[in-house]
Amino acid sequence: MMFPQLAQFTDVAFLLLRVMVAIVFITSGWKHFQDPEARSKDIGMSNGFTIFLGAAEGAGGLGVIFGVLAYLARIPDSDPVNLVPFCNREMSGCVLRNPGDTRRLLEHSV
């Protein structure tokens, strides 16, 4: 790490980054709602799609602020290697040996 003394500010930095990205999404979505006719001509789409796009951008901005999208983005990165101790490739299922295995299986299947 180039500046180890700045490591204490990573949580705040990520929070501010999420807020800035959310502001961009929400303001863009609000512009779609304010004047959908002019905005639809700018982007070359219909009025209905422009309103839908504004709603989607607003919802995306709220999702960034509240961390919903960060949670969904981590699902493809979940580590399937953790399932190896109780999964058998020759069988068509998993054998749960410990009570904690059910929790791990559910976490990876979500």
Number of domains: 2
Specify Rg, calculated over alpha carbons.
22 Å
Major beta sheet summary: none
Shape: elongated
Strand content: under 5%
Please provide the ordered H/E string of secondary-structure elements. Answer: HHHHH
Number of DSSP-assigned strands? 0
Span between termini: 34 Å
What is the residue-mean pLDDT, rounded to a whole number? 77
Number of helices: 5
Range of helix content: 55-70%
- Poorly predicted runs are 82-86
Strand and helix layout:
Elements: H1 10-34, H2 36-43, H3 47-66, H4 68-73, H5 99-109
Helix pairs in contact: 1-3, 2-3
Question: Any overview of this molecule?
Answer:
This protein has 110 residues and is mainly α. It has two domains: 1-77; 78-110, no CATH class. It is built from five helices and no strands. It has helices spanning 10-34, 36-43, 47-66, 68-73, 99-109. It is elongated and about 50 Å long. The two termini are 34 Å apart. The model is unreliable at 82-86 (pLDDT under 50).
Quickly describe the structure:
With 110 residues, the chain is an all-alpha fold. It has 5 helices and no strands. 64% of the residues lie in helices and 0% in strands.
Which structural traits does this protein have?
single chain, 110 residues, mainly alpha, 5 helices
